[in-house]
Every structure is written in structure tokens, then in C-alpha cells.
Predict the structure of Galactokinase.
Amino acid sequence: MIPAPDLLPASVRAFVERHGREPSWRASAPGRVNLVGEHTDYLGGLCLPVALGHRTWVVAAPRTDSRVHLTSGDALEWSGDTSHLTGSPLRGWASYVVGALRAVGWQGGLDLHVESSVPVGAGLSSSAALICAVVTAVTERSPDDLLRAALEAEQVHVGAPTGGMDQTVSLLARPAHALLLDFAGGGLPAGRPVPWSPERDGVELLVVDTGVRHANDDGAFARRRAEAEAAMALSPDEVVAARDPLPRRRRHVDSENDRVRRVVAAVERHDWTEVGALFTASHVSLRDDHEVSCVELDAVVEAARTAGALGARMTGGGFGGCAVVLVPTTQRDRVVARVSAAARAAGHPEPSFLPGEAGGPATRHRAAGPSHVDLSQAQRLT
């Protein structure tokens, strides 16, 4: 199990070492895992995500010139002028930071450093966590304004066709709660906190990272979205007459929205057996009707269920990434061992396991004092 680390001290030390001064702002934002309600947010549907304990940390300070200098704990680096904050989209990790700065209308130079424990490309919203950490760090706005900026950053400036669930839960999550989101009204979603503490009933949520990576900007996600949007625009009679795959895309969306409602009801009455069964039904729909699973995800779900899990499903956009497994605490070690053994036997990447406790939202952090790094040895402004 990979616990969630506190990367704020390391972020501050790295900023001082690489930028030559103390940061002015410190912020972090969580990754998220979606319990149920997949590929529904951009179609006006329902979803039920929780924020994770794993977070992305951003520390930053303004510059007196017009340079923007971005660094990261992965030794990735990007520099540009403020002129790069307008015009055509960039690519790579810097595009998310620059997109966030564009969305908040950032003026002037900036030094910014990023550290993260959210796995990249795993379906846990690492990109949304990065964007939400940046907008939280460099601006002081209302939660709704921060959400609008985060959505603009990823949808407009990065060009990823996300629906809004990721940014919403990263900015508005509550500890020990899931967030029931309803996108039916257009614009910002309506949200209702739903208590989520299965561990109090002897049940745990495991997040299983298959090690298979995806990217929201590689075209596959956009194709599924276009197919689903076309299917949802049809009348019931037109759906019956439509050519494959549109009827299956429509069936997934309709049934998934119903599963969200049923999961919420089951959670509220502490019926974890029913929640697990609905998780598994969601996976079958995502695999067969929406066709966004992969063999590695299917193998995790099957191995977990045969080892004693109450249910399991892929989570996130699909084509790789993570599964969520609902398991009695007494069966956790057995499930972990069986899933790992199944992956090795099939020649799949070794999976990793993250705790699925529901965490809190994006946060600005106060300075706790100097970082105790020798500034005389640090890189100076250039």
C-alpha cells in the first residue's frame, strides 16, 4: 500500500534550491477516484467521486521580469516569456500550468515548482490536481471562480475534453465524504456531500493502479465522447434504429446514471454488498457497452472478485489506469496478493495499491517558517 506523503517541506526546499528564494505561495490539490458514474459528467449526468489523500503540491513566487520558470520534482523544467501565456496550446506537463495561468489572467513573471504523489495517466485526475493546485496558489478567489478557471484551463487552453467532475471534486471535496454531482443543468454542477466511511463497517476501498497509462489528449477519449453525445441526442425510437455502437453507448449512460442513484442509496443504508455488486455492473457496462476498459483492468476486476472482494470496477476515462475494489478488511491482504499474482501470471505490469479514504479539497498552506536551505548555494534569478 502506498501511503499519501506530505510533500510541502520537500516542495519548499526544492523551490529554494532551484529558484534561489523562499516561495510566496504554497498550495496543494488532491487527485480523485470516481466511485461510480463514468463518462456521464460531460453528458449532463450523475457521478460520485471522492478526493484522495494523494495530492499535487505547488509553491510559487512572482518575478520582477516577464519570465515564467517552471520546475518539478521529476527534474522536468520549462521556461518562457509571458507571451507564451497567449496563443496556441503547449504540450506536455507545462501546458497544464500555463493553461491555469492563462485562465486566471496571470500578468508578469513567475517561478513555480511542482511535486506530486498522484500517479500520472492513471485515471486519478493528476492533470486536474495540478491545475487546481496552481489556481489555488496564485489567486484568491471564490470556490466557484476557481472552478471556472480550472475548467477553462483544461478544456480550452489544454484542449482536453473533460467534463468537469475532476476539477469540481478537487476544489470542493469534504473529508470522509463522496460528492454526488449532477451536471444536468449545464454550467457548474449541483453537488451534495454523501458520507463515505466504509472502513467504519469493516470495509475498505482499494485503488489498484495497473501501470498501464493513458492520455486524455490522445484522441480515444474524444472519440468515445463524440459517440456518446451523438447517442444521447437521439430519441428512443432513433436509438433502436441506430447502427452500432450508438445503442450501446446510450445504454451505458442511461444505466450508469441509474447505478449512481442506487449506489448513493446503498451507501446511506450501509449496504456494502449492494455497493460492490453495482461497482461490478458498472465495470461490465464500461467494458462491453462503452468499450473503454482494457485487458489489464479486466484482469484486476476478475482477480479481486474471485479473491473475496465485494465488487470492483475500472475508474477514470479508461484505456488503462486504475480500478477501485471494495473489499472487507479481513480479505484485503488476500485480494492484494491475488491481484498481484494474476498480473504476474499474465505478463502485465506489477500493480500498485493506494488507500481510498476520502480526503479534503485544494488548500492554500501558510508558511511554517524558513526552509533552512543555504540560499548562498541556491540558483539565482536569471
Remarks:
- The first strand starts at residue 25 and ends at 34.
- Residues 8-367 form a domain with the Ribosomal Protein S5; domain 2 fold (CATH 3.30.230.10).
- Residues 56 and 116 are 4 Å apart (CA to CA).
